[in-house]
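Structure, all three chains, one model.
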Amino acid sequence: MKKISSLQELDKARQEILDRIDPEKPVVTITSGTSARAYGSEKVIDTLRKELKKQGLTGKIDIRITGGQGFDEREPLVMVSPQDILYQQVKPADIADIVSETLIGNKVVDRLLYKDAETGETVLHKMDIPFYKAQSPYIFGNNSKIDPTSLDDYIAIGGYSALAKVLRENSPEEVVEMIKKSGLRGRGGGGFPTGRKWESCRNAPGKKHYVICNADEGDPGAYMDRGLLEGNPHSVLEGMMIGAYAIGSDEGYVYVRYEYPLASENVERAIEQLRTYGLLGKNILGTHFNFDITVSRGGGAFICGESTALMASLEGKAGEPRAKHIHTVESGLWDQPTDLNNVETWANVPLIINKGVDWYTSIGTEGSKGTKIFSLVGKVKNTGLVEVPMGITIREVVENIGGGISGNGKLKAVQTGGPSGGAIPTSLIDMPIDYDRLTEVGSMMGSGGMIVMDDKTCMVDIAKYFMNFLKDESCGKCTTCREGTRRMYEVLNAITEGKGKEGDIELLEDLSWIVAEGSLCALGQTAPNPVLSTIKYFRDEYEAHIKEKRCPAGVCKALITYSIDEAKCTGCGVCKTVCPADAITGKKKELHTIDPDTCIRCGACLAACNFDAVKVV
Amino acid sequence: MSLKGIDQILKKFEYRESAIIAILQEVQEKQNYLPEKDLEYISEKLPIPLTRIYRIASFYNAFSLKPRGKHIISVCLGTACHVRGAPMVLDRLKLELGIDIGEMTEDGLFSLETVNCLGACAMGPIVVFGKEYHGQMTPARVESAIKKYKKTSKE
Amino acid sequence: MIKFTIDGIEVEAEEGQNVLQVALDNGFDIPHLCYHEALEPYGACRLCQVEITRGNRTRLTTSCNYPVQEGIKVQTKTEKVIRARKLVIELLLARSPNVPVIKELAEEYSVGTPRFSLDNDDCILCGLCERVCREVVGVEAISFLGRGSSRKVGPPLEINPQTCIACGACAYVCPTNCIKVEENENERTIVRWGRTLPMKKCKVCGRSFAPWFQLDYFGKITEGIPKDFWDKCPDCR
């Protein structure tokens, strides 16, 4: 591999890569990120290779293996170009048909196309699928164009041209200015203006300046950063390099969550490639810019997403936050000025440089510019990663992209911001997505989890869920956070067990106040949000649990009973077979009954019954 | 783990204390947990007080100070998995295996653990057997999955 | 010299001092459990919270780790401060209902029976023992273990820390008195850590006065002190 040691050589290398591409040559693109692999994408790829060989097509058709392309529910996705056909949920057994019908016969395999659940119509092209149609995939969309293990692929789509541009045309101060003008705000949760952070860090005196990519994506229900790092690691690294140039840093770290092995692998490989090409190291592209990046894997602690805890972890310590009376931009990693930005924030940087500040600021709202990637999950039809312009309404995301609620439930709430955020009720979902609006209603942007909840979701149970999460993930240093989250969990647990008392809601509010006001770091300060927002919007559910000892959503085990509807039971016996507690009796073709004392409320019969005969009250 | 193996890992990280998390990860990788004697050896060689190593090993979820089963079953308790019924899946696993979270079956075959989000939220509820991800799990599918692993272990 | 006000009264401090220390030196009463002037402030117990106004922003913050700054306005008795203190005391009392210092605080602030189930833990995780062992003694025999609601403090493996010199500094700083030291003629035991060490007899009076291990360690870390200094008990030196 030849080193690229000047700006001209980068242009030349790009041209050479582009010249090698034959636009007429068929390409089969297969997704193989973590989700696709879970659905067997590796076997699909293997089968495709074998099938092409068998048909004598090896070398005549290119295979491109990409990271996730968002529509995780339908993984693995297989795209055939130049016809631009999208096949979904492809199994190894489908490969023979794709090869013979589509690649050889130029026909479409109808059964593998996306089918609209309501109209029954099939959709041929990816961008015509409702899930994709309403998106603005400026950042995440590149995942479908590149093999994340190939630096050449990234260069071919214009990769590292933003870095080259700033090195060629701009002083570091000008780059800071551009990012400030772009209005880019931190995508990790807080929404702090990125340009201002860079400026403070650049101006802070120190022996050395560090830049860090926070890839410790711990919000449960959010995986945007995994999607980017797995599918397009170079876009994140390019952003970091531009940031390092602007800030005056020569050393960077990517702190990747322990639970993301593939993301670590891909970003480590990408860094190695950059070193081999001479794009990391000394005198990058023949300039005076020196920079290198190290990947560090986390140890499985949500708190390490907090900047000071992350830095402590990088230094080889337990991830315990420290007081921020002196900001990390002045004294961060090893007490030196440190700029830390989230994965998605970094990935926005090359886009801003390439497309220009005016273009970038034309997207979004007054206070929130650009796009945001969300993980649209939970009780929604189409789940996956979606990229939308800021200012779009939650309803548009859930209904147009997500296709509405899955099953026959009704939309109840959308949770954003993870454990720091809150549940937004249906009455507010016409609200535009914007940092400040989300905060106003008691939630927050957070890193981008958007968990859809329906009428079968108990909001008290959700509050309890988050408190259980937080009491374990708190570092345990502050009395308020450690004892407070634990006590909130206890109170909520009692409520869900039917032991709620008059005054519990007020007690929760009191505890919320001290946990938020009295704790050192953002984890504690925002920990009560899931409780406060559910009390605010779903107080009636709390009251039903406390006063009537009833769980309206039918979730809280101690408050529900399973029974069989006489009118619907056909006596098929499936429920009896699946019951792990032997709580169901009944003869074949006769009415079955559940003994409430033996029943463990595991839900197996409910899931198994084909006649909707199992009732939960 | 052999002392030589630990030495190699320490050397790879240039005996840097700041790399302790990575060092412990590599030591654990080979044997599923962190035995006491290995930690004592690392403490002696780096050298750093044993307390610092235990502080790290007990703080981060990635580490186990107890031996774990041949198959580690991790149930994702992310929010998306939770609303789609992960608690029921977990209950069923406890019932089938006869163990609680953090425990190992008597035959040493399975350990049951939970993880706070695997970032594969679109496929929830998710259970990972070793390195194999199983999406859209139901209580009913738990039984067959365990049977499968029991069978392959006997073969 | 840095000038600022506490409850409206102007005070002076030196650069690098923390608000709590300056307040205590000037006779203000701010409850605190995890602070000791010889140790790095930690900010864990959250009792020393005060309201601090800097510029046009006022917020509740712990005073022990807040560096003094020119012109800040510190308030130690506002409604918010008292509410926070009472809630922190309630949380601590629920954790440690039988610890005298917590019971006294509860009485002082009229905190009745906590609204939660009562535990019976005598340690409030203030971390003074861990800090004194690390920062002053320098042996790091104990540390925090675990995290979140299962956080603890103790030796690795939770028993008999091999580097502990049984000096008893941890017991000395513990605000809840949960670290007990027992001595008999020949041995000293730090009960909580399960550490027992034989003691040395004074060359002059013959009385057992400190563990051998501790004296060896002090001999190693101190310079310019004659070797036989450590052979005599403090009374005979």
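The first helix of chain B runs from residue 3 to 12.
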